[in-house]
């Protein structure tokens, strides 16, 4: 029964997001549409923001799972995620154009942390780099910030960018940057002044 109720809340929330901005969705309107009590909602979710986070994870979390990324690669996963966003354009913009746009931005920023760290760590291993774990996290952090900027630009451009072309271009930039950043770690210890 609990799973049924969670699915009901989630699907109703998704329907409402397709119809109206996130800021206009209230717990009272949601529970009325679900025909459940507010206590039932609060049993499953702390508040509407917890529901939004759970929704984003259920909708887009698959693209960052280790198995999925290992099979598809981050470029393919990114292309599929952006295509999914484009198919749900109204819903995404109802979140993004709300006062809670930072929830979407933070979600993308958070889920990409491990993705880029794994990519950087693999590149360092391939180059037999002596880069420290802290250094690898710094390099991955730069990639993560760049990816967030890339994603925001995609939204600003009303999702009109050619997904394949733009992701491939970003991938080439990342590959060059990561390769160079991992290599230059040896120079850093030699006292490179920038």
Rg, alpha carbons: 20 Å
Please state roughly what percent of the residues sit in beta strands, choosing from under 5%, 5-15%, 15-25%, 25-35%, 35-45% or over 45%.
under 5%
Count every beta strand, where a strand is a DSSP E run of 2 or more residues: 0
Number of helical segments with 4 or more residues: 11
**In whole angstroms, how far apart are the ends?**
61 Å
Overall 3D shape: elongated
Q: Encode the helix/strand succession as letters.
A: HHHHHHHHHHH
Sheet with the most strands, sense and barrel status: none
What is the helix content?
over 70%
| Low-pLDDT residue intervals, each spanning 5 or more residues | 187-194
Secondary-structure-based class equals: mainly alpha
Mean residue pLDDT: 90
Description:
- It is a single chain.
- The chain has 194 residues and is an all-alpha fold.
- 77% of the residues lie in helices and 0% in strands.
- It has a domain at 59-188.
- α5 (66-72) packs across α6.
- The N and C termini lie far apart (61 Å).
- The chain contains eleven helices and no strands.
- The longest helix is centred in the middle third of the chain and has 26 residues, at 101-126.
SSE arrangement:
Elements lengths: L1 H18 L7 H8 L3 H7 L3 H13 L5 H7 L1 H14 L1 H8 L4 H26 L6 H24 L6 H21 L1 H4 L6
Write a compact overview of the structure shown.
With 194 residues, the chain is an all-alpha fold.
